[in-house]
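WARN retry 2 of 3 for item q-0093 after timeout on previous attempt; input resubmitted unchanged.
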Amino acid sequence: MATYVLVHGAWGGAHGWRLVRPLLRAAGHDVFTPSLTGIGERAHLASPLVDLTTHTLDVANTILYEDLSDIVLLGFSYGGMVVTSALQHVAERVRHLVYLDAFVPGDGDSLSSLNGQPPRHAGLLGGEWLVPFIERHYEDGDQASWELARRTLHPAACFDEPVRLAGALETYRFSRTYVKATGEPREVSNGHFWAMADRYRDDPHWQYHEIATDHLIPVKRPRELADLLLAMA
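OK item q-0093 returned
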């Protein structure tokens, strides 16, 4: 039996894994999908003080309080920042680290810096501290209505705070996978995601996989994603 900890992305919530969770559990595995403070079902806790450290502890404390070990830890999109940051607390409990069309920061990187954007100074009095969500394409009207009703604004400080990482990911004992959504052309997709795909595709220290859909893999290709995760078990 494997234990999966799946971390959602920006503007989302644990509900984003609703199609993947039952597939993994039906195969006999434990699945944890921590909710990040201030977004999704925890949007009522949003404030200018919510930052990457907050989300790091949301995930690390789930792992520590549940006493999880030998886990498959996955970060989707912005969740890649969170799982990387969480390594300072739980690295020895991770067996396999997965980045799902996600940011892969090094020490000192923030999401803003990886995107080539200046800090928003969200904590300053009167500053804009909530970031509107990015528009996404859905496969039909029902799917769009369900998803859009649950998209929330995101605390900007999460995007400005840098990650602290003790060493390069390749120096850790766990194995690593990068999964790229190839259904979005490079010119409309986040450039960092494609850069990571190019970097890890032939890297012997990484496993690399592709899923032929756009960025919303957990919603649009849950079976394919679950099969990939089950193979890691």
